[in-house]
Request: fold
Amino acid sequence: MTAPSYYFRTRDELVAAAAARLLEDDERDVAAAIASGGLPFLLARWSSPSRRYRLVARFELFLDATRDPKTRALLRRQRATFLEAARAAFEQAGMSEAALRGELLVATMDGLLLGGLVGPKRSSGEL
Reply:
């Protein structure tokens, strides 16, 4: 097994690569959700037991961002991507306060995903 230091010389490089990979995967999933059923599809996909590692990585990065300004800046830029997509979706639907609704949607999804990760065990068909 190759050590991470073979690919990433610094911790900052490793964290940035992990965050970039999560963003790529998330953007691909969002595009699939738009084409295949929206939020229920996305929540089911992200909370799937086979993708648990991604949720753990996501929340590890969130925790790291509370201590590391570089991680915090990186995640803020990435989060802005999702906030903008949510705002645009609400705006396109003709809803008022699209930016606020987008922020609430993203925060709600984060909460549901965290709850599914650490909450009581559920069947595979449930979040």
The longest helix spans residues 11-36. The helical segments are 4-7, 11-36, 38-46, 52-65, 69-92, 98-118. The radius of gyration is 16 Å. The CA atoms of residues 103 and 111 lie 12 Å apart.
